[in-house]
């Protein structure tokens, strides 16, 4: 099989968390020469396996997977690094006559591929360290007020995320502009998005079942290991501790939260995240959300045509 001539349209499969993206991608990989490019903000980290629902060793035998386990939990892995590695993986897959299938639900990663990344200056760790100290001294609300005084819209975009606030102030104080005011680099490829979601009651059931299974499989021990590598008490909160459910799993490991309450809290947080993902898919990615069977058929058509 040969890939289409220059500038192929790359298929991108997305869905809210727990909907079954991995299962569908493996179903396709069993039929076509597909290699999977993961677009998930936390499966990039080595050691975060259970809590991120990372593909198992057996699942990775079905098809090559790219961008899993590419960073240590102590590293700050950013969207620019993701885009560089993802586009390199896509180029490599195409060069070997295979089909790259981007699979994931992290909105800002998918945006980086489909729209490009902001042309903001590189991170200045010294400036960030000063802002981290300022955050501890003045508090989150004071720094957010600094942003709101110049741009209420920018302050709203921060979503009270300390890392975003520090980055926004770092750039604004150095350049006079916030990160959102910079342009974007051009995407290297064209993408066609395929999005699906089960009915909400079914998705909520899947979330509850998966949460219970992950906790039962050893997620609390994984969270305890993570805490030994990177303290969750650091300010600003380390990137890895922004992963859903790890704080609750750690509380179970330390005996400060019982298992049923942890399951309930994590399931609630996951349902809320899934709803935000669906909003992003429709409004930002501009994709129609279909049912799984329809998406599978459309992807099969595309892959047959590619193999043509």
Description:
This protein is α/β, with parallel strands linked by helices and 308 residues long. The protein has 13 helices and 6 strands. It has helices at residues 21-29, 57-60, 79-95, 107-114, 125-138, 140-150, 152-157, 162-175, 200-216, 219-229, 246-253, 259-283, 292-307; strands spanning 9-14, 34-38, 65-66, 99-103, 190-196, 289-290. It has a 6-stranded parallel sheet with strand order 3-2-4-1-5-6, with helices on both faces. α2 links the parallel β2 (34-38) and β3. α3 (79-95) crosses α4 (107-114), α9 (200-216) crosses α12 and α11 packs antiparallel against α12. The protein is globular, with a radius of gyration of 20 Å. The model is unreliable at 1-5 (pLDDT under 50). InterPro entries: Dimethylallyltransferase (IPR039657), IPT (IPR018022), P-loop_NTPase (IPR027417).
Précis, in short:
The chain is α/β, with parallel strands linked by helices and 308 residues long.
Briefly note the CATH topology name of the largest domain.
Rossmann fold
Number of strands: 6
User: What's the pLDDT, averaged over the residues?
Assistant: 93
Radius of gyration: 20 Å
> How many helical stretches?
13
CATH homologous superfamily assignment of the largest domain: P-loop containing nucleotide triphosphate hydrolases
Q: What is the chain-wise order of helices and strands?
A: EHEHEHEHHHHHEHHHHEH
State the end-to-end CA separation: 8 Å
CATH architecture of the largest domain: 3-Layer(aba) Sandwich
Family: Belongs to the IPP transferase family.
Cofactor: Mg(2+)
Catalytic activity: adenosine(37) in tRNA + dimethylallyl diphosphate = N(6)-dimethylallyladenosine(37) in tRNA + diphosphate
Binding site for ATP: 15-22
């Amino acid at each position: 099989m040969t890939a289409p001539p220059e500038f192929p349209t790359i298929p991108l499969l997305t869905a809210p968390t727990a909907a079954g993206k991995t299962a569908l991608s493996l179903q396709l990989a069993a039929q076509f020469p597909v290699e999977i490019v993961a677009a998930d903000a936390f499966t990039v980290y080595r050691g975060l396996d259970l809590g991120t629902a990372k593909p198992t060793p057996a699942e990775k035998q079905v098809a090559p997977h790219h961008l899993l386990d590419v960073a240590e939990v102590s590293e700050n892995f950013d969207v620019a690094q993701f885009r560089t590695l993802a586009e390199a993986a896509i180029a490599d897959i195409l060069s070997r006559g295979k089909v790259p299938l981007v699979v994931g639900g992290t909105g800002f990663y998918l945006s980086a591929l489909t729209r490009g990344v902001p042309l903001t200056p590189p991170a200045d760790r010294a400036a960030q360290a000063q802002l981290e100290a300022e955050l501890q001294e003045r508090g989150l609300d004071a720094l957010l007020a600094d942003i709101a005084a110049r741009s209420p819209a920018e302050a709203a975009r921060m979503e009270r995320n300390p890392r975003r606030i520090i980055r926004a102030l770092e750039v604004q104080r150095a350049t006079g502009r916030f990160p959102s005011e910079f342009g974007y680099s051009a995407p290297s490829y064209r993408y066609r998005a395929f999005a699906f979601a089960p009915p909400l009651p079914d998705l909520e059931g899947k979330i509850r079942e998966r949460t219970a299974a992950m906790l039962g499989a050893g997620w609390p021990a994984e969270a305890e290991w993570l805490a030994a590598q990177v303290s969750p008490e650091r300010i600003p909160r380390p990137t890895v501790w922004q992963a859903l459910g790890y704080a609750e799993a750690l509380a179970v490991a330390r005996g400060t939260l019982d298992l049923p309450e942890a399951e309930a809290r994590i399931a609630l947080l996951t349902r809320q995240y899934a709803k935000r993902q669906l909003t992003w898919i429709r409004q930002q990615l501009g994709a129609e959300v279909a049912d799984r069977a329809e998406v599978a058929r459309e992807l099969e058509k595309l892959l047959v045509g590619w193999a043509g």
